[in-house]
Amino acid sequence: MTTNDITRARRVHPKTFQHRLAVSMAATAALVLISVSILVWISVRQLLLVNTDAALLSVARSEVAHFSTPPFTARKYPETPSALELTTRRGYRQFGAIVDSTGKLVSVTTPLDLETTAVIRTIAAKAGHSPTFAITSISKLPVRIVSYRITSKAHKPMATIVAAMSLRPFLRSLNALFAVLTVTTIAGTLLSALLARYVAHRLTSPLSRIAAQARKTEAGNQGYRISDDFPDTDLSDVANALNTMLSRRDAAYSQVNELLTIQSQFSADASHELRSPLSNIRAMFEVVLKRDRPADEYRQVIKDGLEEIKRLSRVTNDLLLLARSDAGQLNLQVDNHDLADMANAACNAFAARAAVLQVGFDRKLRNILVQCDETRIREVIDNLLENAIRMAPRNSTVVVGTEQRDGVCQLWVEDRGPGVSKEEQDLIFRRFYRSDASRSRDSGGSGLGLAICRAIAEAHGGTLNASSAEAHGTRFTLSLPAAINGGLQDD
């Protein structure tokens, strides 16, 4: 996890996210206000138009009620009809007219010019028996006009009633409403933008705080954690999840550093192990070639060179075995074998060497069938016995035993040597590790034996562990799975 991992995870920088959230909220509020304003404006416009039409019908019906027999006359209205009483200083200009069946304008409430008279006649000619409404312009004055025909009881057309009313108050009301709605929308948008900015800041500030703290978590800043003292449970969960990830990162870094250290030490030790026999062989050959020597000396040099080559081959084979084990390619020929028989055969093979060092074997072997590769497990037992004999003091015994506990077969080898400290009980299984750094490689081996033994045990699905009490010896325990169709057998 790098400095900006938390920001990458959220895809956006906290400030940018906050800005986008505020803009989105403000835009949504503005859209709602504009939609409401348009709806209000349309509704009020329609309501005013309906009231205007009602007033016009009132004027027209008054004309019809006043209309009787010729001569036809139209009444004058000094005041605005009650249906159009709105909050405006200027009253509605209105007039009425009567057009006979021949298209002659017989009576008007207000004197009209020729252009207006022509408009009235055109409208009257198109009138029907039902009220017809229209919006037109008379003398550059926008008006609303209603017209319809009057018939006699015999259904003969008698005249056409035309009533008109100025739309200027109507338009003034709509313009005033439009201005109010525009100012309200703009003010509401600005207010919603400020409110959205505040809300977005409140929502994103904890995330910005987490991001700011996450930027401090550099690769070398191990142990740093994000504070989780948030009132919001979800944010606390996020901080805890990040802290868990940081803990895993720290563990991974520690493991990587440890592996790098081990790898570096392994490379150095492997180079030394391979270089030493090569250097010895080269030195022997260079010395023997400086002058002519007897055949016996040449044979001795060749013999010593072969020993170094064997040593080089052992180290190379050991490294190859460990590499295969790491890659999971340690091919095993698994079958059921008696663990006690393998341990007993190994003790017999080391009996002569142990006798020379005045070390005996205390065999506590019980016949147990295990699933294993006999050659590989015998290699483990041989290595454990060789180490135990080398570390055991003179006139002491090495205890070798087998037992079965809870379905697990165990073999242990215990010596009475100086023991291993608690700190080294797991280190001794590392490659090229030696508990005594001052000890020469010639006497201490390559340091790969126990590492190979543990790798073989783990390849079998088992374990190899050491337990020791200083000055009281060391005990190595090999645990292996029991045979499928076997277990503890009779002694």
Give your account of this protein's structure.
The protein has helices at 5-10, 14-66, 114-126, 168-214, 233-288, 295-326, 339-356, 374-391, 441-444, 449-459, and strands spanning 94-100, 105-108, 132-138, 141-151, 157-166, 335-338, 359-364, 369-372, 396-405, 408-414, 463-468, 474-481. It is α+β, with helices and mostly antiparallel strands and 491 residues long. The strands form three sheets. A five-stranded antiparallel sheet has the order 2-1-5-4-3, sandwiched between helices. Strands 7-9-10-12-11 form a five-stranded mixed sheet. α8 (374-391) runs antiparallel to α10 (449-459). The longest helix has 56 residues, at 233-288.
Draw up the topology in text.
Blueprint: H1 5-10, H2 14-66, E1 94-100, E2 105-108, H3 114-126, E3 132-138, E4 141-151, E5 157-166, H4 168-214, H5 233-288, H6 295-326, E6 335-338, H7 339-356, E7 359-364, E8 369-372, H8 374-391, E9 396-405, E10 408-414, H9 441-444, H10 449-459, E11 463-468, E12 474-481
Parallel strand pairs: 7-9
Antiparallel strand pairs: 1-2, 1-5, 3-4, 4-5, 6-8, 9-10, 10-12, 11-12
Determine the N-to-C terminus distance: 59 Å
The unreliable regions are 1-11, 74-92, 437-444, 486-491
Mean pLDDT: 76
Radius of gyration: 54 Å
Shape call: rod-shaped
- Helical content (DSSP H or I, runs of 4+): 40-55%
Number of helices: 10
Within the largest sheet, what's the order of strands? 2-1-5-4-3
What's the number of extended β-strand segments?
12
Order of helices and strands: HHEEHEEEHHHEHEEHEEHHEE
Give a quick account of the main beta sheet: strands, pairing sense, barrel closure. Answer: 5 strands, antiparallel
Strand proportion: 15-25%
